[in-house]
Each structure stands twice: as structure tokens, then as C-alpha cells.
Specification:
Blueprint: H1 2-27, H2 32-47, E1 57-61, H3 64-70, H4 77-90, E2 94-97, H5 109-112, H6 120-130, H7 135-146, E3 149-156, E4 169-172, E5 184-185, E6 187-189, H8 193-196, E7 201-204, E8 217-219, E9 221-224, H9 233-236, E10 237-239, H10 241-250, E11 254-259, E12 274-279, E13 282-285, E14 291-293, E15 304-306, H11 307-312, E16 324-328, E17 337-338, E18 346-347, H12 348-361, H13 371-392, H14 395-420, H15 427-456, H16 465-477, E19 481-495, H17 497-502, H18 508-528, E20 532-537, E21 540-545, H19 555-582, E22 591-607, E23 612-617, H20 619-634, E24 638-641, H21 642-648, E25 653-661, E26 669-676, H22 678-681, H23 684-701, H24 705-718, H25 723-738, E27 748-750
Parallel strand pairs: 1-15, 1-16, 2-3, 2-16, 3-7, 4-11, 5-9, 22-24, 25-27
Antiparallel strand pairs: 3-6, 8-14, 9-10, 11-12, 12-13, 17-18, 19-21, 19-22, 20-21, 22-23, 24-26, 25-26
Length: 754
């Protein structure tokens, strides 16, 4: 018996492993294999997404451009009504809102007038304004006149306050769906009744992501049941936005649900719930929960029309005529971004639109009923064949069968996806086959080695050379030191940060959020132009170029970054001013100064043996920091060193500022101001200004004070924003008149502050 067991373990153990994997697949604790299967389906779509085919579906996009042109969200309902009217006039078949209007419009007369002061002078004005139409009622009227609008609502897990109006009815095309199949919610955020009542359709725009947060399926039906009971088919079922858009487009009233079985998804995922939903004349195959697998396309700009163009009537009506038009948002600030298999930040409305496009095209991605059975059969047949080959033909033939079987399964699943749009999983069967082969091979190896050990009486084990190699290399990665490189450095600091922070003395979290808003766009600017962020020091940024990767002509991207950073600050100040005005508090603009310098430094791992950072060390770095401090002294935005200027001056407009010995240094350096890009440099006005400014500096260093003063008066007219620079020189000249610098003066100014 012992001898038989020793010989039989080679194929008994692999069979145990095979059936264990099959059992694990059936139980799937923690849905580990389900997650793996979904990831594989994601890779299918990434490698070959659905090719965009033009169909009559469009997105009116509340994008960042629209918010910039029209104003921050929410917009007055009068603008929304105007949008509905313009789309209706253009011939839109359906207008569907991926937006809920749950609160009264704060710009309506009855919302605004009570906020006005109680004064006799305003009584007549109040009465006149109160007689104007309510914005929400106006939107409701426009929706009713359009006769093709689908409003949207959100289902939640909270307590129900008011149920949305159900526009679609449901009928059965067979047995009722099993209890608990459709995703259930207990609460809702519904539209105002005055808006909702005249809509042709009303659908939930809930997306039900998988537990990893990725949206792969769009529901066509959901359940709202507040009492914790099972969902009643006729009473508790609600249509979704995609389904309502399709229903209204076809002029239908009733959706027909076809289902089978008496329970939800089995352990093997067979469809024993809803099979399909008939919307109008179209039968849509679904999974057992009534969801459609979405076959996503890559971004298709032709789908989109910016919302501002609809409001301004600056769009081609043919883009809208006879189209199903969804109104949604891709603006990052409105936080309707979701993850899809091919896009980590997809606009939520894209999922609904992709689903509707598929229905119109008859293009369905499905997990077929036979998929689980086919995967199970593959595991059993190939697994048993491998066990037999291991027993009678050895590991070589078994390895060949395993490799061929896994490759064939992967190819067959890919073919099923690309040619039939079926989602079949090659990974779990592949794992079962590989586990069977590897366990059998391992056990056979152990048994063989055990027999050899008995014959020889000894057995030696060795450490893996690959592991030794890895461990030997690891200390080299932790060595301190670096290399000498020519680099460009940027220091950026906020002007008047103490004043700004003072308004947040009781709200340090608010100051933190402000700094994050400040640092994020500036960081993006630097990284987008091949820079490396060295560190953040409170309100200061230190960055460098030409390490760890080489950057040719590195002073130029550094200069471009500096100019772009001021453009980003200008945008941020616009937003901050609007927020301050809305919150009725003082506005303090964020202003920055930047210093740039280039030179040779040591770059590498700096620190102690316990902890270090990748950083730089050298005189050129210190000078860059000092130049940033001098930007305030000279009244300019960006001060650059002479080496930086020597490379950048053929592409950027610069002027010499001074010869200065910065604090802490005896040697004088020539410093310059960065004023603009190539277009400024090549302009006749700048060339004239540059020549006059250079001549002024020559007079200054020759101690020709009168000529210098006359020149600066003219320069102020040419460049008014440089008044601080010329005021500085006026002060120096006044001092030099009283205290002449002497005949041997070299024009160097010794700075007394950083």
C-alpha cells in the first residue's frame, strides 16, 4: 500500500489541486477570481476598444471652457431653459439631463428678493421683480413645450424624502425577475416637482461601479424600495437615464422585461435573472441584474458640443437634428468623473452615451450563458489530460500540452471578444491548468529527488544565484554621493505670504487647501517641461533641470516654466477673487517672485546613511535662491543669472538688471530680468526699449547721472510696469549724488538683504 501510494501521488495530488481550484472558483471567497476576470475583460477593451461609429447621439458638455465663458455652476435655470429651447428648435429628438435640479434656483426672483434690505425705496422694485416668472417654473414650461426632455435623478441609500415621478411603466415578457436581482436603493434625490412633471421621461443616472470603482456596466432598471422589503416589480422599478432616452426617442411608454430562473447569479455566474429588456422596438440583452455591458470607445471629439455654443447658438443644427442629446459635464471641478476600463477619469455621461450608441448600433458586449460551462469543461478535460501525460509520458510532454492549451485558450477567448463580442475568461482556466501541471511536476520532482537521496545518502541545496545577485546589487543603490552636472535651478516664493496666512489664522486647513491649489498647477507646469521638483518649503518651490534625465539647452524650458507659472497664477487669482466675492470676504491676490540660475553642481543622493534624498549641492543653487529674493528688490517677476541668460536670450526677451554682489557673496554677478517670449523679443518696441535700457546702464556705470535720469523717464513711458526698477535706480542716483562712489567704481551694487 505504501509503495502504491508513493507511485500514485504523482497524479492523485494534481487531481486534488485541480478540483480544489474548481471548488475555489465556485466559492470564490472575497470574489478574488471575479476581480481577476473583470481585469482581463478590461484588458480586452484597452487593447481593442469599440471603434467609434457616428450615430445620432451627442453630448452637450458643461466643460471647463463653458464654465469659463458662462460662469460657475450652477447656472440660472433660465439658461438651462434657453438650452432646452435651442436644442428643441434645432430638432433634437431627445434631450436627456445627466443633472438633477433638486434645489430651487437661487437666482429666481422669489429667492433673491427676500435677501434685499427692507427699505421704502426698494418696495416698488421688489414688487416688479417678484412679478417676474420663477426660473424653475420657466424651465418646467420649456421642458413641457419641448415634449422630448428626459430629466435625471439620483437614487441613494438614505431615507426617502420624495420619490421621483415614474414616467415609464413595466410589463413582463415571461416570469417575474427573481427577488433581489435588481440593484436596490432606499432614497432618492429627485428634481423639483415643477421641473419633473412636464418631462417626457425621468431616469436615474446612477452608475453601479464594481467594487474596484470601475464602471463596466450601465443599468437599464433599478429599484427604489424604502421599507426594506423585496422590490415589487410593478411599483418599485425605475428606468435609468439611458433607458429613458431610448424609450422617449421611440415614443414608447412601456418597457418589457424578460427573465428566467428563480434566483440571482449562481456561483458560476449563469444568467438566472433578467435576460433582456425590450425598450420600444429594441430588445436589449442584459446581465441578470438588467445591466448592459459597455463596450467603450476612446475619446471621440465629434460626440461633444460645448454647452456655451448651444447657449450662444454657435453650433450647426445638423449636429443635433434627430439626435439623442445628453447634457452632462466633463469639467473636473464638478466631480462627475468615473473610472472606466480604458479611461481612469471618464465623464459620467460618457457611460450612458456609450450604452445608447451600442443599442442603436445593435453592438452588444456579452458574457454568454455558456461561458461558465465552457471554462469549467476546459479545466476538467485539459487538467485530466495533463495528469495522464505526467504519469505515462513525463513532464516534457505535459509542459507542451500545458503551453499549447493555455495559449489556445487565450487565443480562443480573444477571438470570441474581437469577432463575437463575447467575454470569456482565459485566466481562471489557465490558472487551474498551470496549477495542475506545476503541482504534478513539483511532486514528481520531489519524489524523484527523494529516491536519489536514498540511493546516494545525501542531498545538497544551493542558494539561487539570481537572489544573490539581487542582494549584492542592493547596497550599491543606497550609496551616498553624486555626479557633477551643469543644471538650471528655479526658486519660486509667494510675496506677502504673511498677510495671506493671517486671514487663515483660525482656519489652518483653509490655508493648506489654498497652498495645495497654488502648488499643484505650478508643479504641473514644471513637470510638463522636463523639470524635477526638488522640494517644497512652505510657500516656496525648488526645482531643477538636466537631472536625473538630460535636458538639452535646459535654461530654455526653465524660462518657459517661469513665464507659464505667472499665467497659471493669474488664472488662480481670478478664481480666488470670485470665491472671495461670493463669500463676502477680502481678496488677497497671490503674487510670486522667481529666481533662475544655471551652473555646475553635484547632484545625487544627499543626506545621511540612515536617510537621504535625491538633491543638488553647489554655489549655483544658492545663487538661484538669492536671485529669487532680488525679484522683489528690483520690482520684476523673474530674475535670471548671466549663464541662464546667455542660453535663453536668443529665444526670450530679457534685459540686464544690474551687477550685484548678493548677500553672503563677495564676487559680483550680472543679473537679468525675464520679460517675455520670442514674440516680445522680436517686436520693434522691445528692441527699441532694450537699446535705450542698455544705454541707460552704460550712463549709470559712467556716473552720468543726468543722462541716466533722463533716459529712465523715457523708459518708464515705454515699460510702465517696470516703475519699481527705475525707482530703485533713482534712489541710488540720489544717494550717489550725495556720496559719489569714486572714480574706480565698477558699477557693482552690494546687496544687504536676501
Amino acid at each position: 500500500m505504501i509503495r502504491w501510494l508513493r507511485k500514485s501521488v504523482t497524479y492523485i495530488a494534481p487531481l486534488v489541486i485541480l478540483f480544489a481550484v474548481i471548488a475555489f472558483r465556485g466559492l470564490d471567497p472575497g470574489a478574488v477570481l471575479e476581480d481577476m476576470r473583470l481585469k482581463i475583460f478590461d484588458y480586452y477593451q484597452r487593447f481593442q476598444p469599440r471603434e467609434y461609429t457616428p450615430v445620432p447621439v451627442r453630448i452637450v458638455d458643461l466643460d471647463d471652457e463653458s464654465l469659463e465663458k458662462v460662469g460657475q455652476w450652477p447656472w440660472p435655470r433660465t439658461l438651462i431653459a434657453e438650452m432646452v429651447a435651442n436644442l428643441a428648435i434645432a430638432g433634437a429628438k431627445v434631450t436627456a439631463f445627466d443633472i438633477v435640479f433638486a434645489e430651487p434656483d437661487r437666482t429666481s426672483p422669489k429667492q433673491v428678493v427676500p435677501l434685499w434690505p427692507e427699505t421704502p425705496e426698494l418696495e416698488a422694485v421688489k414688487a416688479a421683480v417678484m412679478s417676474l416668472p420663477d426660473h424653475d417654473e420657466l424651465l418646467g414650461e420649456y421642458i413641457g413645450e419641448a415634449k422630448n426632455v428626459v430629466t435625471g435623478f439620483v437614487l441613494t441609500g438614505d431615507k426617502l424624502v420624495r420619490a421621483p415621478v415614474r414616467k415609464a411603466t413595466y410589463a413582463l415578457g415571461g416570469v417575474a425577475p427573481p427577488p433581489g436581482v435588481v440593484s436596490r436603493y432606499t432614497g432618492a434625490v429627485a428634481n423639483l416637482a415643477v421641473i419633473e412633471k412636464n418631462a417626457a421621461g425621468n431616469g436615474s443616472f446612477n452608475l453601479v461601479p464594481e467594487k474596484d470603482g470601475i464602471v463596466r456596466r450601465v443599468p437599464l432598471v433599478l429599484c427604489l424600495q424604502e421599507d426594506g422589503k423585496e422590490c415589487n416589480f410593478g411599483r418599485d422599478y425605475y428606468a435609468t437615464l439611458a433607458g429613458e432616452a431610448l424609450r422617449v426617442a421611440q415614443g414608447a411608454r412601456t418597457n418589457i422585461i424578460k427573465a428566467s430562473g428563480a434566483s440571482g447569479e449562481t456561483s458560476y455566474g449563469a444568467n438566472t435573472g433578467i435576460n433582456n429588456i425590450k425598450i420600444g422596438r429594441t430588445e436589449v440583452p442584459t446581465d441578470y441584474k438588467g445591466q448592459i455591458w459597455v463596450h467603450f470607445t476612446r475619446d471621440a471629439p465629434e460626440r461633444y458640443i460645448p454647452a456655451w455654443k448651444i447657449l450662444a447658438n454657435e453650433f450647426d443644427p445638423k449636429m443635433v437634428e434627430d439626435n439623442i442629446v445628453f447634457i452632462g459635464t466633463s469639467a473636473s471641478g464638478l466631480k462627475d468623473l468615473r473610472a472606466s476600463p480604458i479611461n481612469p477619469a471618464m465623464a459620467g455621461v460618457d457611460a450612458h452615451v456609450n450604452a445608447v450608441e451600442q443599442v442603436l448600433l445593435g453592438h452588444y458586449l456579452q458574457r454568454p450563458d455558456w461561458a461558465d460551462g465552457a471554462e469549467l469543461a476546459f479545466m476538467l478535460v485539459i487538467g485530466i489530460m495533463i495528469v495522464v501525460l505526467l504519469r505515462f509520458a513525463g513532464a516534457g510532454w505535459s509542459a507542451g500540452l500545458t503551453a499549447v492549451a493555455v495559449a489556445a485558450a487565450a487565443a480562443a477567448c480573444w477571438y470570441a471578444y474581437t469577432n463575437m463580442r463575447f467575454l470569456v475568461d482565459p485566466v481562471t482556466p489557465g490558472i487551474a491548468v498551470l496549477a495542475t501541471y506545476m503541482s504534478g511536476t513539483l511532486i514528481n520532482y520531489i519524489r524523484t529527488e527523494a529516491e536519489k537521496k536514498q540511493v546516494r545518502g545525501a542531498f545538497a541545496q544551493y542558494l539561487s544565484p539570481a537572489l544573490v545577485e539581487q542582494l549584492a546589487k542592493e547596497p550599491d543603490r543606497l550609496q551616498l554621493g553624486g555626479e557633477t552636472k551643469n543644471m538650471t535651478f528655479l526658486f519660486c516664493d509667494v510675496r506677502g505670504f504673511t498677510t495671506i496666512s493671517e486671514q487663515f489664522k483660525t482656519n489652518p486647513q483653509g490655508l493648506t487647501r489654498l497652498m495645495n491649489r497654488f502648488l499643484t498647477p505650478l508643479t504641473d507646469v514644471i513637470l510638463a517641461r522636463q523639470g524635477t521638483i526638488d522640494k517644497y518649503m512652505g510657500d516656496c518651490i525648488m526645482a531643477f533641470w538636466n537631472a536625473p534625465l538630460d535636458v538639452p539647452l535646459h535654461p530654455k524650458p526653465a524660462c518657459e516654466s517661469a513665464l507659464t507659472m505667472f499665467e497659471e497664477i493669474a488664472k488662480l487669482n481670478v478664481d480666488l477673487e470670485a470665491e472671495a466675492k461670493a463669500e463676502n470676504r477680502p481678496f488677497f491676490a497671490i503674487n510670486i517672485g522667481i529666481g533662475l540660475n544655471s551652473g555646475d553642481v553635484v547632484v545625487g543622493n544627499m543626506g545621511s546613511t540612515q536617510r537621504f534624498d535625491y538633491s543638488v549641492l553647489g554655489d549655483a543653487v544658492n545663487l538661484a535662491s538669492r536671485l529669487e529674493g532680488q525679484s522683489k528688490t528690483y520690482g520684476v517677476d523673474v530674475v535670471i543669472g548671466d549663464t541662464t541668460n546667455s542660453v535663453a536670450r536668443d529665444s526670450y526677451a530679457t534685459i540686464e538688471l544690474d551687477m550685484i554682489a548678493v548677500k553672503g557673496k563677495k564676487e559680483a554677478v550680472r543679473i537679468h530680468a525675464l520679460l517675455g517670449r520670442k514674440a516680445v523679443l522680436d517686436s520693434p518696441e522691445f528692441k527699441d526699449f532694450h537699446a535705450r535700457h542698455t544705454a541707460m546702464l552704460v550712463d549709470y556705470r559712467a556716473q552720468k547721472w543726468e543722462a541716466c535720469a533722463t533716459a529712465m523717464a523715457e523708459l518708464r513711458i515705454l515699460r510702465p510696469h517696470l516703475y519699481g526698477l527705475y525707482d530703485l535706480y533713482d534712489e541710488r542716483i540720489a544717494d550717489y549724488r550725495d556720496n559719489p562712489p569714486g572714480e574706480n567704481w565698477d558699477g557693482v551694487f552690494k546687496a544687504t538683504s536676501k
